[in-house]
Amino acid sequence: MALKPETHAALAVPSPWVERWAALVPTGGAVLDVACGGGRHARFFAARGHPVDAVDRDADAIAALAGITGITALCADIEGGPWPYAGRRFAAVVVTNYLHRPLFPALLAALAPGGVLIYETFALGNEAYGRPANPEFLLQRGELLRVVGGARVCAFEDIHVEQPKSAVVQRICAVLEAE
User: Fold this and answer.
1) Which is nearest to 143 in space by CA: 157, 131, 163?
2) What is the CATH number of the domain that holds 139?
3) pLDDT digits (tens, 9 = 90+) for 19-51
4) CA separation for the pair 71, 174 (Å, rounded)
C-alpha cells in the first residue's frame, strides 16, 4: 500500500521526542536506530555528525539508506534471528513505533556507559485510536520505567497525543550511568 504524499512527508520528519533529547548524545557518538523503517532518525543523527547503524527487516527501507554518508544500514530480522550488535556499545539507542519485548535486554546491553536510550512507542489505550490495537504491541502502564532499571530517567511520558496522529504513547529518555 502506497503512502499518501502528506503521510510520507510526515514520516520523514524526526519525532519531536527524539529531537528533544538528541543533545544528550555525546558529540560524534555512535547511534543505533532500531527498526529504523525509512531512516528518519538515522538521517537526523547522521546529519548531526553521528555515525549511525540502522537496522530493519524491510529490505526496501534499508536499500533506501544505502550510500548515505554516516549511515551503515543492515537488513536483519531482529525478532527471529540473532541480535546483530552483540558486544557492540553505542552512545545512543533510538527506538520509535516498535515493540518486541524480548529485545529489551539487548537494547540496554548495547548502551555504552553514559549512553542514552530514547524510546517512544504505542501504549495501552491506543486501541481506541486504531492500530496497533493488539496488547502484545502496546506497552503496559509504566513498562518503560521498569525496563530501564537503574538508568537515570531524564523524562518519561505515558500520554495521549494528537500529532502525527491521535494515539496513546509511552516514551522515555534514560541515561546509563557511567561505570
Assistant:
1) 157
2) 3.40.50.150
3) 999 999 999 999 999 999 999 999 999 999 999
4) 23
